[in-house]
Amino acid sequence: MRRLAALAPLALLVGASPVATLKVDVDALRNARGVIRLCLTAVASNFPTCEDDARAVARSVPASQRSLAYDGLPPGGYAVAIIHDENGNGKLDTFAGIPREGFGFSRNPRIAFGPPRFDAARFTVQQGGEEQRIRMRYMF
Predict the structure, then answer these.
(1) In this structure, which topology does domain 20-135 adopt according to CATH?
(2) pLDDT tens digits for 103-121?
(3) Which of 52, 93, 107, 130 is deepest in the core (most CB within 10 A)?
(4) β-pair type (20-27, 130-135)
């Protein structure tokens, strides 16, 4: 009987959904002022802002913190968008449509006019986890 009782917690895990961890490292940050705002989404139509996406995960961390982990993610396709909100006003400041603050995307896609498409930044999180190293870009 004791053996069966000891195995009971394992039986709960058999039916559990797999989860993974995503580690995001931020490179080439201009300075440690303000915050880094990260948006993680699996929905192409909500990239890169994560607006109207109930399942998106948005986080803000001090700019001195250069890495962050998202735990408990279901495996699947995701994209990350980052802004370096140097003045802490909650948005990416622009001048004539050109970003004045830093930005970056998962997979570090080529940037032309405007943000990349979801597919260019999309990566797959497997059950074992994933790591993304995102290089910040500054136009000014």
Answers:
(1) Immunoglobulin-like (2.60.40)
(2) 999 999 999 889 999 999 9
(3) 130
(4) parallel
